[in-house]
Amino acid sequence: MRPLLLIPTFALLAAAPAPKTPTEIVAAAPAAAWRTIPAEDLLVMQLKGGQRVVIQLAPDFAPVHAANIRLLSKAKWWDGSAIYRVQDNYVVQWGKNESADPLPAGVVAKPPEEYARPVKGLPIHPLGYADAYAPKAGYALGWPVAYDPAGGTANLVHCYGYVGVGRDMAPDTGVGGELYAVIGHAPRHLDRNIAVVGRVLAGIEHLSSLPRGTEALGFYKERTSDVPVAWVRLASDVDAGERPSFQYLDTGSASFADFVRARANRKDDFFIRPAGGVDVCNAAVPVRPTPAG
Amino acid sequence: MRPLLLIPTFALLAAAPAPKTPTEIVAAAPAAAWRTIPAEDLLVMQLKGGQRVVIQLAPDFAPVHAANIRLLSKAKWWDGSAIYRVQDNYVVQWGKNESADPLPAGVVAKPPEEYARPVKGLPIHPLGYADAYAPKAGYALGWPVAYDPAGGTANLVHCYGYVGVGRDMAPDTGVGGELYAVIGHAPRHLDRNIAVVGRVLAGIEHLSSLPRGTEALGFYKERTSDVPVAWVRLASDVDAGERPSFQYLDTGSASFADFVRARANRKDDFFIRPAGGVDVCNAAVPVRPTPAG
């Protein structure tokens, strides 16, 4: 009994809905799958040229460094500072010399490592594909993580747009006054060697398109090449009228699981051969401005 | 019997040579480990602003597309063309509409796929670490490859700076008249879906630092935003006095094996915890201008 023979195969194929693209899956995610980021976790960097960069801090992974950054922002530490390093396929770095200027009250001068944290307490959703740098990769609390179930530690990952704390040689971990953002292929060798403290949510193009520095490590040769920073504030300290607000897709939601699966198996439109895999930095946690209303 | 107790531990440590950095290993590689790239495999793109980009073609992986590109260059196809798309963390794209302009004689209008090639005949040196996109990753003939030993195919990898052939929907594979270079995290989902035809050896910063396009997919909105290309030539057709020449480190050499090992296990200077792994795009095949003499 093969009743379906009455229906031509091509009609069956035509009737099958086209696989959704990752973008379509994100667009269709219900409101309940989105998490609004607290305003005190958003750092707004206004360049003197008028461009704006918005960074989400990661206090669940680097609480002392995040607290330092909040205090530095409240003390207007970065107002009048500059971007002074742009290294192609690597990082953009900005800030002010932590050892030359007195630190504001409350800032911890020698923060603990915060390069990794216990897996315990983290609701990790495994990526499900191999990672070249760690036993496992996945997502937790809206962030990409690499982790070692045996060792019991997890770390934030140096993906494109992720923000780390500049430091000198070990065991110094950096105060948080000099920060960098990744503008190239994920430099995962920095994982667990530097405190990752957040990610750029908006405006990364104002950093990634800057002229590359010509000195070693991409430092600008002349101070006249530096890109001036007008001010840096927590969103909670920005006037309500121009306060940014962002949401991320809950990494425990069904929509996010669908999104990762679609990123690993592109079948839409253009694609001929789904990869059947994806790396954790190539399935970036979706973010969006908080919808009005 | 513990004779070494006579020697203080710190002295032993001080006597141990510091591990070489990847850069030091490359600098110490013998001349015999370097391979000079034939001038007919080098494509020179001169922007109207004076910046120069040098691309190495990959005829071992995409012979028909590489032959097309050589013919297009000899026919001055790209002279007066433009860069018209810059998408952040993705690609810069340039060229001329393949369907609007008549193709020069000899150019194959419908090239075969060339998205992968047989493993057979490729001297592959395995990376030795997991790959999220393919059963194996490694290097062959100076290029990063992903491969499937069971299926018997290997493909060039979409790493930072790698150049692919723009195409329309399948089964079109593109002529080679519209090219793109990767300027972000390796978009490995494009592997085996597009012909990778080479890589940028020099001048990638002239592409990666361009203003991002504001239209969908990073296209420039206004034609006045386009970045004009003065000319494109094979190095073999450039005047001897300004002809570029480059070498790559033989991916079968002991120096290259040491380099990959060091990239996967950074112990020098700054590093506290070696990753114990690396992805194939984060251990990029070293290239250099051919030394004088």
Explain what this protein looks like in three dimensions.
2 copies of one chain form a homodimer. With 293 residues, chain A is α+β, with helices and mostly antiparallel strands. The first copy, chain A, has 2 domains: 17-37 and 246-293, no CATH class; 38-239, Cyclophilin. The first copy, chain A, has 5 helices and 16 strands. Chain A has helices at residues 9-15, 22-27, 63-74, 204-208, 254-264, and strands at residues 34-36, 42-47, 52-57, 82-86, 91-95, 117-118, 125-126, 136-140, 143-148, 153-156, 162-165, 178-182, 196-202, 227-234, 246-249, 287-289. In chain A, the strands form 3 sheets. Chain A has an 8-stranded antiparallel β-barrel. In chain A, β2 and β3 form a beta hairpin. Chain A starts with 8 loop residues before the first helix and ends with a strand. Chains A and B meet through α4 of A and α4 of B. Chains A, B: Residues 45-215 form the PPIase cyclophilin-type domain. Chains A, B: Residues 1-20 form the signal peptide. Chains A, B: This is Peptidylprolyl isomerase. Chains A, B: Keywords: Isomerase, Signal. Chains A, B: GO terms for molecular function: peptidyl-prolyl cis-trans isomerase activity.
